[in-house]
């Protein structure tokens, strides 16, 4: 197990190094995303400002808590865009074209390579901007921080980043079994857009079941924020860990079965 971890760590370092070199060879490819992602982030802020200027409270959260929530969700999305999104999103096309053959013949995990071969350094400004929004939300809400709260918040951000990754991989891996997953990706986009604007605390009934269990986008930023506010109950914390564990197992099962089900486009 230790040797495998060391091997995967070396592979990840090599992939990051190659990606950085390729981006620097074409400077527009390196600096372009800075301006594109930065512009999109500013547009999002304008939209959120428009939505929440006339709203004093959503659920039990006031403006400070909501800004912290928006910053937290934006940070998760920024980490996603920075590290693995642009690699994983190409899975359906590689399955259809038969390019997946090239990944299966390499002596490393295909999913590992896909996840880290297209790290997008141009998304790093989104991480910085999201951090500023988080700090602003904490300041506006007069949230009292302790070392323990900060550590727990970072822990949940890491855990929810894994869940975010699992959900993206699961949806793209469905392409192993169907001709097109475009309808599923549209559901994903709609769910993410909704949950980026509304925290999980406002969902009840069937909506809570959908966004807490089926497509658990509702807990992605809600649980980290609750931990920082001191509102996270033990039962909810256990539930959050269980959801991440279950979806990680589902991701592994679907990916492995998908690889066995895969037929090369050239065969």
DSSP helix fraction: over 70%
Tell me the distance between the termini.
35 Å
H and E order = HHEEHHHHHHHHHHH
Main sheet: strands, sense, barrel: 2 strands, antiparallel
Count, helices: 13
Summed up, the domain count is: 1
Mean pLDDT comes to 81
Runs in which pLDDT lies below 50 for 5 or more consecutive residues are 23-29
Write structural notes for this entry.
The protein is mostly helical. It has one domain. It has helices at 2-25, 27-52, 63-83, 85-88, 91-97, 100-104, 110-116, 124-140, 147-173, 182-197, 205-214, 222-229, 234-261, and strands spanning 57-58, 61-62. Strand 1 and strand 2 (61-62) form a beta hairpin. Helix 9 runs parallel beside helix 13. Mean pLDDT is 81; it is low at 23-29.
Compact summary:
By secondary structure, this protein is mainly α.
Topology, element by element:
Layout: H1 2-25, H2 27-52, E1 57-58, E2 61-62, H3 63-83, H4 85-88, H5 91-97, H6 100-104, H7 110-116, H8 124-140, H9 147-173, H10 182-197, H11 205-214, H12 222-229, H13 234-261
Antiparallel strand pairs: 1-2
Helix pairs in contact: 1-2, 2-8, 3-8, 3-9, 3-12, 9-12, 9-13
């Amino acid at each position: 197990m230790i040797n495998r971890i060391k091997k995967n760590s070396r592979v990840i370092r090599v992939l990051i190094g190659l990606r950085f070199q390729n981006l620097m060879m074409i400077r527009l490819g390196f600096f372009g995303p800075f301006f594109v992602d930065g512009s999109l982030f500013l547009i999002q802020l304008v939209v959120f400002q428009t939505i929440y200027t006339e709203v004093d409270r959503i659920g039990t959260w006031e403006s400070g808590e909501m800004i912290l929530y928006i910053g937290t969700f934006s940070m998760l999305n920024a980490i996603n865009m920075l590290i693995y999104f642009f690699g994983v999103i190409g899975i359906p096309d590689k399955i259809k074209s038969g390019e997946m053959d090239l990944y299966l013949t390499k002596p490393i995990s295909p999913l590992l390579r896909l996840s880290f071969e297209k790290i997008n350094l141009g998304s790093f400004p989104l991480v910085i901007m999201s951090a500023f929004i988080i700090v602003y939300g904490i300041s506006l809400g007069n949230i009292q921080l302790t070392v323990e709260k900060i550590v727990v918040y970072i822990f949940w951000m890491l855990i929810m980043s894994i869940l975010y990754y699992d959900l993206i991989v699961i949806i793209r891996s469905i392409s192993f079994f169907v001709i097109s997953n475009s309808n599923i990706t549209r559901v994903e986009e709609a769910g993410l857009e909704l949950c980026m604007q509304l925290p999980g605390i406002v969902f009840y009934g069937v909506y809570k079941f959908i966004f807490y269990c089926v497509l658990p986008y509702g807990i992605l930023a809600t649980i980290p924020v609750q931990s920082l506010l001191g509102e996270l109950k033990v039962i909810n914390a256990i539930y959050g860990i269980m959801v991440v564990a279950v979806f990680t197992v589902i991701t592994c099962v679907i990916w492995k079965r998908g690889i066995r089900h895969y037929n090369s486009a050239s065969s």
